[in-house]
Amino acid sequence: MRGGAGLQVPAGTGRLRTPSSVLFCCTLNSIRSPLAEGMLKLFHGRRIFVDSVGVRTAPIDPFAVAVAEEMGVDISRHRPKTFDDLEDGSYDLIVSLSPEAQHKAVDLTRDMACEVEYWPTFDPSVAEGSREQRLDAYRGVRDELMRRIRERFPPAGSVAV
User: What is the pLDDT of residue 5?
Assistant: First the structure.
């Protein structure tokens, strides 16, 4: 979905401006949204305010911590929170990563000028197999999120494709 908060760029360009604040959300705020939050912070530092929440919470997943660490992102101190825990509900963009979070984001933004994007993302916690096979599922999610983040939030001075 596109629209709201004045984030659309002039017709014909097909590109969105980089928002100044982004909220990533998923079901438990223990894997997907903390990974996305950590990666966007890695790529943009303080240039973009980034936060993440879940519909519910669970402790940070150790496999998520491990695959984030492989790329130099430390999410080990992440403290999962819900939409209700947000101190400031004002974001330019909310990116939902699970169907449940998408419903919550749409409901939250009914009366807000805020763009909502849905990036359906596999829940790697359901992967079975050896430790390495499970880690590979988490790496796949991490790599897909990284690709989408780089595409949607290109570094300053570069052009999105």
Answer: 39
